[in-house]
Amino acid sequence: MDAYRLLILVHACFGTLALASYWNAALSRKGSPWHKAAGRLYVKSMLGIIASALPIAAVAFARGNPGRGIFLSYLVVITATALWLGWRAVRRKQDQAAFRDRRYVVVAWLNLAAAAAVFAIGLRTGNGVLIGFAAISVYGGTTMLRRHRRPLDTPRWWLREHFAAMLACGVATHIAFLSIGLSRMLQGAGIELGGRLELLSWFAPVLVALLAGIYFKRKYFPVRPTAASLD
Fold first, then answer.
1. Nearest one of 113, 139, 157 to 210, comparing CA atoms
2. Cα dist from 104 to 39, 88, 98, 213, whole Å
């Protein structure tokens, strides 16, 4: 087995571990020992995914496949950002100012720069998926900058940040699995879905995350009626 095949295998193993630990954390009781243990395992497996994705992206560029290289590089940016925010929200939950420090602003601008680059490349190559998904980093970066200027006015701000970041991590994890891992397995079985699988791999995880976000918001952050609304 050559070095590149070994790298792909390692990446796939980290991806499988990430999917398993993500759903273990998602389905377990929030704050329980099992939830925390699964969360720690997920963070470690995602770090392995990020570390192995970077050389895979470099190989793609070197082999004249910039589309794949851009796709992987962009996933690294949005995944690393979400992972970092989710981890920091728990570690800094007693101090929102420390959470939204100078590094937080730098990461926000990095996401906006990534969005601009992906959007420009999508326009140049006519890739509608890249054009559309530049919006992920635009939304993430602008939201971060807005909350740096005007922090969330709630004691449970960190929980909102944690949920949002973990949903974003889930989107990136499942996009990578559907567009890379599943597509390879289907190709090995002689099944070609073409553009349908690409659209499914990008948009289905986003739709599920949006619905999950609405559910979590209603469950953990219900809007309580004010005195004025009761009059």
1. 139
2. 22, 10, 9, 22
Q: What is the DSSP letter of 150?
A: S
Q: Give me the helix-helix angle, 66-91 and 33-62, nearest 10°.
A: 150
Q: Say how far apart CA 186 and CA 207 lie, in whole Å.
A: 23
pLDDT in tens, 154-201: 888 999 999 999 988 888 888 777 766 666 665 556 656 556 666 677
Q: Is residue 227 part of a domain?
A: no
Helices (H), 96-194: 96-99, 102-125, 128-149, 157-176, 183-188
Give the global pTM. 0.82
* Domain tally, the chain: 1
Residue 117 lies in a domain: yes
Does residue 231 belong to any structural domain of this protein? no
- Domain with 101, as residue range(s), is 3-220
SS3 state of residue 226: coil
Residues, the chain, total? 231
Residue 228 domain flag: no
Rounded distance between C-alpha atoms, residue 123 and residue 120, angstroms? 5
- d(CA 143, CA 74) in angstroms, rounded, equals 18
Contact 67, 127 (CB under 8 A): yes
**Cα separation, 137 vs 77, whole angstroms:** 9
Q: Which residues contact 134 (CB under 8 A, 6 or more apart)?
A: 115, 116, 118, 119, 122
